[in-house]
Amino acid sequence: MIDALGQIDPDYAIVAGVLLIALGVPSLLAAFADRRLPLVAIVLCAIGGGLIWLVFREYPGIYDFAEIPHSFVRVVAQIVN
Hints:
Elements: H1 10-33, H2 39-58, H3 68-80
Helix pairs in contact: 1-2, 1-3
Protein backbone atom coordinates (compact mmCIF):
# COMPACT_ATOMS: atom_id res chain seq x y z
CA MET A 1 0.00 0.00 0.00
CA ILE A 2 2.72 2.51 0.97
CA ASP A 3 6.29 1.82 -0.14
CA ALA A 4 9.55 2.61 1.64
CA LEU A 5 9.62 6.15 0.22
CA GLY A 6 6.18 6.95 1.61
CA GLN A 7 4.39 6.90 -1.73
CA ILE A 8 0.96 5.32 -1.86
CA ASP A 9 0.16 2.69 -4.48
CA PRO A 10 -1.89 4.39 -7.22
CA ASP A 11 -4.52 1.65 -7.21
CA TYR A 12 -5.17 2.21 -3.51
CA ALA A 13 -5.33 5.97 -4.05
CA ILE A 14 -7.90 5.62 -6.83
CA VAL A 15 -10.04 3.22 -4.79
CA ALA A 16 -9.84 5.42 -1.69
CA GLY A 17 -10.72 8.50 -3.73
CA VAL A 18 -13.74 6.88 -5.34
CA LEU A 19 -14.96 5.54 -2.01
CA LEU A 20 -14.58 8.93 -0.33
CA ILE A 21 -16.56 10.59 -3.11
CA ALA A 22 -19.17 7.83 -2.88
CA LEU A 23 -19.54 8.61 0.83
CA GLY A 24 -19.56 12.37 0.27
CA VAL A 25 -22.31 12.59 -2.34
CA PRO A 26 -25.14 11.13 -0.18
CA SER A 27 -23.94 13.29 2.71
CA LEU A 28 -24.07 16.31 0.42
CA LEU A 29 -27.62 15.51 -0.70
CA ALA A 30 -28.75 14.90 2.90
CA ALA A 31 -27.27 18.20 4.02
CA PHE A 32 -29.08 20.08 1.26
CA ALA A 33 -32.34 18.31 2.10
CA ASP A 34 -31.96 19.29 5.76
CA ARG A 35 -30.93 22.84 4.80
CA ARG A 36 -27.63 22.71 6.64
CA LEU A 37 -24.06 23.40 5.61
CA PRO A 38 -22.47 20.29 4.00
CA LEU A 39 -18.97 20.72 5.45
CA VAL A 40 -18.20 17.02 5.91
CA ALA A 41 -19.46 16.22 2.43
CA ILE A 42 -17.33 18.94 0.89
CA VAL A 43 -14.24 17.72 2.73
CA LEU A 44 -14.87 14.08 1.71
CA CYS A 45 -15.39 14.99 -1.94
CA ALA A 46 -12.36 17.30 -1.97
CA ILE A 47 -10.04 14.68 -0.49
CA GLY A 48 -11.39 11.97 -2.79
CA GLY A 49 -11.10 14.18 -5.84
CA GLY A 50 -7.60 15.18 -4.78
CA LEU A 51 -6.50 11.56 -4.54
CA ILE A 52 -7.88 10.76 -7.99
CA TRP A 53 -6.35 13.93 -9.46
CA LEU A 54 -2.99 13.05 -7.90
CA VAL A 55 -2.93 9.64 -9.57
CA PHE A 56 -3.99 11.02 -12.94
CA ARG A 57 -1.34 13.72 -12.69
CA GLU A 58 1.49 11.39 -11.63
CA TYR A 59 0.64 8.59 -14.11
CA PRO A 60 -0.90 10.35 -17.14
CA GLY A 61 -0.43 7.59 -19.71
CA ILE A 62 -1.17 4.66 -17.44
CA TYR A 63 -4.27 5.65 -15.47
CA ASP A 64 -7.47 7.08 -16.93
CA PHE A 65 -11.17 6.77 -16.11
CA ALA A 66 -11.45 3.41 -17.91
CA GLU A 67 -8.81 2.00 -15.55
CA ILE A 68 -10.82 2.66 -12.36
CA PRO A 69 -12.74 -0.68 -12.37
CA HIS A 70 -9.48 -2.55 -12.95
CA SER A 71 -7.96 -0.75 -9.97
CA PHE A 72 -10.83 -1.97 -7.78
CA VAL A 73 -10.26 -5.54 -8.96
CA ARG A 74 -6.51 -5.34 -8.28
CA VAL A 75 -7.03 -3.90 -4.78
CA VAL A 76 -9.62 -6.53 -3.87
CA ALA A 77 -7.35 -9.26 -5.24
CA GLN A 78 -4.44 -7.99 -3.14
CA ILE A 79 -6.59 -7.87 -0.01
CA VAL A 80 -8.06 -11.34 -0.56
CA ASN A 81 -4.75 -12.87 -1.53
